[in-house]
Amino acid sequence: MTIQSAFTLLLALSLVDMGNAERILGAYIFQRHGDRTAKALAPTKLTDLGYTEEYMSGSFFNNRYISSSSAFQIEGISTEIVSLSQITASAPQDTVIQNSGQAFLQGLYPPIGTAANETLRNGSTVQSPLNGYQLIPMSDVQSGSGSEDNTWLQSTSSCSKAEVSSNNYLFSNSYKDLLKSTETMYQSLSPYVSSIIPSDQLSFKNAYTIWDLLNVASIHNGTGTALPSSQEMKNLLVLANNHEYNLAYSSNDTIRAVAGMTLAGQVVTALNKTITSGGKSKLNIQFGAYSTFLSYFGLAGLGAENVNFTGMPDYASSMTWELVTNASGSGMPSESDISVRFMFHNGTSITGSTQLQAYPLYNLTATTLPWTQFVHDTNQFAISTQSQWCQSCGNTTGICSSSANESSDGSSSSSSSSSSSGGMSLAVAGVIGAMVTLGVLAGFTALVMIVFGLRFVRKSTLAAFSRGSGSDASMAAPAFKRPSV
């Protein structure tokens, strides 16, 4: 072997070692639903195109995180047959989003064929249906239910303060200016949408609904369908992006981004479970709508660095948070050796050439953050518990009724403690107060007796007097009796 060839081999081996130095300990994926019918024609449905987009996205993540041949395989994850203890999937109660989730999971863990067959004691073989289709359950998340039938996604958050905050945008000067300046343009769209959207609703106020209807038509309607020009469609998209981003996030009133706050809390909680469980929990996937992307983009400072993060992500887009380490060996390293990398991909991953791209969070420059720093920075805005959500949103009914009672009880206890911590207890103070009151009453009674010439009479004497006089006992003067303490 020549020196040059030996050097080439050594370089190649070193590159392999560098590539394999990083280990993926776990990941959290937030996935947007696939292509669907228009919201203006609710109830919305996932299209065949949308189903394919999600299935292909699931296959993409199988190749990245599940496949044994991937350099980014999650350490210790089951490669062929899903282990339900390793994976958690969730989605709101929404037909489009849940069906998208099922398609994604089919691609993530595809059917395993005869490997799913089961042999019974009597020797017979049960063939698994659908070629060994693997079932992965999805749990419900609180917010986002019915979001794809709703043109205003903030209302699906059920957060009172967030709804008020979003409504405040409609009173802002920037909104009013666009509402007025685009009035003629939106009215010119009447020939394209008049059968569905009346002219009195053609304005910037319904920017997303209008664009969404025309966008769906541009994908699914026949070539004979009249549509605005490509430049007009781009203009409508820019306006829809502006409208939705401002409804989903405000730097001056961050509760507007409650969807992103909640997601951030879920990410921290899930990745922390991966660490504390020693890697038993490996992959979390949540399915949702574009508003969660937008609100998280704003909170994480992504929109400040890249204007593309102020627009709605395409169907089947993905956000991922990877838990990584460069520590050698196997097993869960110490927290000081663990980092987090945020990655985003706009649109579906149908072609193998497209990859996730890493972006820095929180206006930093590094795309990989130490775990402790990621947790600290994320918790500046994250909502991680139901009681925290209730307090942040100002909700006191429904699931928040118990939190409101606990808060009230806590205030009462705190008040009681503060009242008694300054000296005597409340019980002692109460007894003293009662004695003082009785003393005042006794003094007042004595004064009355002196003024009116009254005197104390024994009860027995009074009874004898009553019997002797033959008067009705009920008419006798009442005896004065010292109150007991």
UniProtKB/TrEMBL annotation:
Q: Does the keyword Metal-binding apply?
A: no
GO MF entry, a single one? phosphatase activity
Q: What's one Pfam family here? A: His_Phos_2
Keyword Membrane annotated: yes
Entry-linked SUPFAM superfamilies:
Phosphoglycerate mutase-like (SSF53254)
Q: Which family does it belong to?
A: Belongs to the histidine acid phosphatase family.
According to UniProt, the name of this protein is Uncharacterized protein
Identify the species of origin. Answer: Penicillium atrosanguineum
